[in-house]
Amino acid sequence: MSSQQSERIDRLCGLCEKNSSKYCCPRCEVFYCSLDCYKSEKHLECSENFYRECVNQELASNTVDDEAKNKMIDILKRMHNESFDDDIENIEPVEIDSDDDSEIDLHTRIKDLNLDDPDALWNALTSDEKNEFEAMLSQGDVGTLIPQWQPWWLFRKEKKLVEEVDLSREKEALERCPTIKAVPKFSTLTSIQPSPSIRFNMANIIAAYAFAMRYVNGEIDHKEICTYILEVCSNLKTNTNFEDAELAIESVAQMCIQSEYIDTDEASLNVMRHDTFLILQGPSEENHLYYSKAAFSHLLDIFTEAKTQMRKNKPKENKNNGNFSRKFPQCSKSHLPDIDTSTIKKIIKKLEYYLAFLESCDNKTE
């Protein structure tokens, strides 16, 4: 057999074994003649592994649910196939390199960046990635890739005629709650009998807390979430007293709608109403104040940490916003109103008062 005949056989498509090959797979180095052969059943394991490795590198440092992972895989497949269809005629076999795919080295591009700096992250993206992000943002699809935060107050032990005690499930649910803080006894804080409106005022605060926690998807920037809570909570902001629980909760809904800093809808407000009911109801009938105490304990931690941050970091005006900040000003927190430390201190004292009151009510039922 001549060398020319041997070369011709070697360059036949290794997948259909009929046509002359034009390209070379960068993974398994098989020669092939067309996109159909590359995507054929015979080459499926290699091509699927290519997609899987792309996605695994992207997801290595993130925790997302299966639905989000599958969606990302589909996006990568579509992007890869569309790019392949457009450019396949212009690709030389020796130049095919899986490392050239921008999705593969995204993790490498951002691994040394400050992930809290949106402008640095934006500059690390390719033009295609920026365009895809803007398209997803305009269509409201970005949220589908972000894991939905699960509140800690969702568990409720149902009361049954014949009760089967599942202590492990209830214990696990309570362990997810914020740690209840120790506060002075209520009798040491005041000798005056509190007004009956105190319970309705606490409902107003709990409704604001529940809304804000959902609004930030459980990701707490202490100063930011304090701003949102004060924006919608009339009792903490202006010492408003309520004579009815329903009015106290609806006040939060109205403040959300009127706020220039908050973008919400009726569905989210209905979730807030239901969350407030769950917190006030508690994990069980015999432990009905536990969630309320956990919520006020968490609020104390949030406002205390915000006060500490405000002392350490004096606000600085950023006159040189980067490309991302200029392009997406709604993602910046600079538009939020400032809170002075004296206001924070008063709120902390008020939260301690409410938590001490709850502890005194709990002691009366024991």
List keywords for this structure.
disordered N terminus; single chain; mainly alpha; two-stranded antiparallel sheet
> Total helix count?
17
- Describe the main β-sheet briefly: 2 strands, antiparallel
Average of pLDDT: 78
Radius of gyration: 29 Å
Walk me through this protein's architecture.
This protein is mainly alpha-helical. The protein has 17 helices and two strands. The protein has a two-stranded antiparallel sheet. Strand 1 and strand 2 form a beta hairpin. Helix 10 crosses helix 11, helix 10 packs parallel to helix 13 and helix 15 packs antiparallel against helix 17. It is elongated. It starts with a helix and ends with a helix. The N terminus is likely disordered. Keywords: Metal-binding, Zinc, Zinc-finger. One of its GO terms (molecular function) is zinc ion binding. InterPro entries: Znf_HIT (IPR007529), ZNHIT2 (IPR039646).
What's this, in brief?
InterPro entries: Znf_HIT, ZNHIT2. Helices cover 56% and strands 1% of the residues.
